[in-house]
Design a protein that fits this description.
Shape: globular
Structural class: alpha/beta
Helix content: 40-55%
Oligomer: single chain
Number of helices: 14
Largest sheet: 11 strands, mixed
Radius of gyration: 23 Å
Strand content: 15-25%
Number of strands: 11
Length: 341
């Protein structure tokens, strides 16, 4: 009888706990956990400033978790799919947007003022299926960046990169771990179509290394390890702003460039859903977007943000190339095989 009474009391106690939990809503704490990459969350990235102003505005603490690059962010979220630890994935781009949507780790959420604040092509470029799995927060075109003090003549096309004078002179990024690395692979597919493998065979001798991330690759470039690196049209603005030099140039090729749009998504089944939605709303606000130009060195998506004068060093890509992102995903394995042969 005593044991039965204890059992009944335990059941009522547990029922009360579950009821109390359900009344707290989806948000389980005064926090939002954001999986992202080091150049966003680090001391010099946009992350700290956005977190500070968001916390002041909402009272919600932002916890950044550095997962590597965008591809690694998505991979970790997929591994944790059944028991998600993140509330927001920040750093997924248009090259992996379809993969992210198909993986089932993201919830469809349209941030407040999205249509009024952003150009429609940025929204559709990141959400081609008409859903809102990702909220854009910055963008730029990929470009080969060139050290004008290297003593070499600047290449004028992707084909020029294969010339013997550029042997071991180009730093590229691993398309399996780096979104800019995947972006360069997309560029070659967009320009050369089904002949991209032959292009990579010709390019192979020019590659000094495949760095695992943009930070490591660009760091080698600025240390003088090689005069050419895959980066963005906006990258020279950094050197004008802080180094007071126009030594580093983004090269514009007449054949066109591919564009990267970076976004953040709400994790399906996350612990702090309401907090995450508020964070995504805030991410595209003018206040948050003012942090983007001088930290991310990308264009902000909010149309009301004024660019710093240093952005005059960012050349305009005359032509934006279209391509099949799924085809690029399929191409990565073949590209790596060519490099390793």
């Amino acid at each position: 009888m005593k044991n039965t009474l204890i059992l009944i009391l335990s059941i009522f106690l547990l029922a009360g706990i579950f009821t109390a939990c359900s009344k707290t809503g989806v948000s389980k704490s005064n926090e939002v956990v954001v999986y992202t990459y080091d150049s966003f969350s680090g001391e010099w990235g946009a992350g700290p400033g956005i977190a500070e102003s968001f916390e002041k505005a909402s009272g919600i603490k932002v916890t950044y978790v550095d997962c590597g690059d965008g591809i690694e962010i998505l991979s970790r979220a997929i591994r944790e799919k059944d028991q998600p630890l993140a509330d927001v994935l920040l750093g997924l781009d248009n090259n992996i947007a379809k993969k992210a949507a198909d993986s089932g780790v993201l919830a469809d959420y349209k941030a407040k003022n999205l249509a009024e604040t952003l150009d429609s092509d940025l929204i559709t470029g990141l959400n081609p299926d008409g859903k809102n799995f990702l909220t854009p927060y910055d963008y730029s075109h990929f470009a080969i960046n060139f050290d004008t003090e290297s003593g070499l003549e600047a290449p004028k096309s992707l084909e020029d990169l294969c010339k013997s004078e550029y042997s071991k002179k180009i730093i590229l990024l691993d398309p399996r771990t780096s979104t800019p690395g995947l972006g360069f692979a997309a560029w070659t597919v967009a320009v050369f179509g089904d002949d991209y493998e032959n292009y990579w065979k010709d390019l192979k001798d020019s590659i000094l290394t495949l760095s695992p991330s943009w930070s490591s690759g660009y760091g080698l470039y600025t240390k003088g390890e090689a005069p050419l690196v895959i980066s963005y049209t906006t990258s020279p603005a950094y050197h004008v702003e802080y180094d007071k030099t126009d030594r580093y140039k983004a090269l514009i090729f007449e054949q066109g460039h591919v564009r990267q749009i970076e976004g953040a998504g709400l994790v399906k089944g996350c612990k702090n859903e309401e907090n995450a939605k508020l964070f995504l709303d805030y991410l595209i606000s003018e206040e948050a977007q003012n942090n983007i130009p001088l930290t991310q060195w990308m264009f902000p998506v909010n149309k009301n943000v004024q660019l710093p004068e240093s952005y005059s060093a960012a050349p305009v890509a005359g032509k934006t190339l279209d391509y099949d992102a799924e085809k690029v995903q399929d191409a990565v394995e073949k590209i790596i095989k060519v490099i390793n042969e």
